[in-house]
Request: fold
Amino acid sequence: MNVTLRSFFKTGLKLAITSLVFAQPMMAQDEPSETPVASEDTAIRDKTSELVFLLVDKTRLKADLLTWPELGQKSEKLISFRIAIGKENGDKQKSGDNKTPEGIYFAKSIINGRGLPAKYGPFAIPIDFPNPLDKFLGKTGYGIWLHGVEQDSRIEAANVTEGCVAFYNADIRSLTQWLSPMQSIIVIAKDATQVNRADDVEQVTKLVGEWTSAWSDRDVERYISYFIPNFRSTDNKNLRAYKKYKARVFASYKSMSVSMKDVRVFTHDRYAVAVMNQDFAGDDRFHVKGRKVLYWQRLDKGGWKLFHEEFDPKPVKFTNLSRDKIAQIIKTSPSTKFLQDSRESKL
Reply:
């Protein structure tokens, strides 16, 4: 999948989001502290370090590992895997429906298969289903994993899991090198061509810049206008209470700054997730760096509204990639021959 974003966003928004230092308050968990707060520095990376994500296409029974670079640059497909999915078709709605969920998720952990039933293979990677939007929509369920299989032949059956995404055992081993717990994004879609569309990515990136600008100006009315009316903060404040809280935080510092960089936006048919590295300082008594995650809901009448935000002291993590190593893995992956045969059969 190749995505090229327009030059306006490459220059204008990159200046607005990446380079500018903003005056800005924090979330409820980031209220003023009596002593300075130490935090982990934003990840330093070399030229081989990139942001990667996994795109799962349920219709084509394929998962692609792709890079997701800065605005204006092209995404690169690194490797493709054959997969098996839930026994039932459609988007997961409730516990026990045997459907694979569709949405934007984070990898939660990596579990060694030695302590698991044989059907999970050598490794399992749980994802955060139900995520904030799933919960908002009333979806239920748990234990959705990316995992291996007891026998590779199980992948050929295609619809065999209780909602998980299953891989050949060699492929799930490879994925553990690239998917980081609580960092890596997994996008699951019925049709992968309908996610991360350029127009959607541009719109949401623009909104992130505008929202941050309102934050920098300490303009409470404009800042709050980007939120969905039935918004609930992480500590369960409704929008009215959250507005009062933010106004109080805006006024609590004599000086306040935040810088944003490494902004990436992932979009789905119903919502979008923006991840970025944030550096906040309030006076000389509060300083915190880390990852900001914004969830934007697509409105039926068009446009997007912010319905959930999170902060984690650990910054966005980039992955060191060796193209030579990836080329070797492609040669030995059991997915390679199947996907090649599948393409040839369509010629």
About this structure: The chain has two domains: 7-44+196-312, 50-195+321-337.
